[in-house]
Amino acid sequence: MRLSTLLGLLLAAVCLASTARADVRIKDIASFEGVRENQLVGYGLVVGLNGTGDSLRNAPFTEKSIEAMLERLGVGNLSEDRMRTTNTAAVMVTAMLPPFARMGSTIDVVVASLGDATSLRGGTLIVTPLTGANGEVYAVAQGPIAVAGYAAQGVAASLVEGVPTVARIENGATVENEVNFDLAALESVRLSLRNPDYTTAARMADAINAALGTGARVLDPGTVEVDVYGVGKGGGVPQVMAAIENLRVDPDGVARVVIDARSGTIVIGEDVRIDRVAVSQGGLTVMVREDPLVSQPEEISIGGATVVVPRTSVGVEEQESHFTILEGADVSLQRLVDALNAIGLTATQTISILQAIKAAGALHADLEII
Known about the structure:
Blueprint: H1 3-18, E1 24-25, E2 30-32, E3 38-47, H2 60-72, E4 89-97, E5 106-113, E6 124-131, E7 137-144, E8 146-147, E9 150-153, E10 158-161, E11 166-175, E12 188-193, H3 198-212, E13 216-220, E14 223-227, H4 237-245, E15 248-249, E16 256-260, E17 265-268, E18 273-274, E19 277-280, E20 284-290, E21 293-295, E22 307-309, E23 312-318, E24 323-326, H5 333-342, H6 347-359, E25 363-364, E26 366-369
């Protein structure tokens, strides 16, 4: 099956499904302002590695960290010439502190090597404080790590699968400090749209007012404010938020064509329209082929040598091109896809056609290339 035909079938299915598109929940297109995760970061040591840790010559910060850790544990100062371990690696530990995480709850952490360690498999993370952007410690991480990738090395060959220098610890950090956020004391809540749009914001406000009474208003394309005490739903802020997030609206958005030039993926939105244009696609293919000829000397000869005689063949193939009319304006997405498929284009050629139509001012959509 041609890639252009497959693209046409996919977009045709999207077009047919859009006619019976169901409304989506507000919780799937918006989030409550202030209810968010917080990034945590820390610096620590992974011990117990089987000779795959940092080499102290190339990672002096690992040596300093080992010395500082041993001093805290009561071990005296170690001279530099006696530090030869390769079973320790300096790592950065990151985690996401979820909203309303309470003291004593656990969160997952990600451990990534900071030095020249080749693998963290089999290691154990030593107690590592995790701090937020304000410098406060919010969690402490420790425990055996789990590595998804692996590395194997011999004298003349090596094999690496995945990234063995990055690992995870499930429930590896314990929350020690809470983020102060008094939800019940709020007099109003704000909804932040993940894709700001005036039409979607207005529909959200109308849906909230219709279901809960007056109290919702649009502040900007990405924000809808709801007066908690102005709506008809009693029970406080959490009950109001629970009622709001399950309401359904029909989201809107700008017409957009997204192109991934590396993989040849093209996604065309439902509202994309083009003016009536004529498109011609053709090209010239030049093929150069090398078939060297090996000339051997006679069986009985003195001073004979094998000679490689170059032989090159060049061919030119010209593809027949013709114009095709692409209808647009008020025509459906299915008609646009059918017109593109009628030319018999590959994904790369379709990308070039769409870029040329946009440059001509006939494509009424945002063209985004990623």
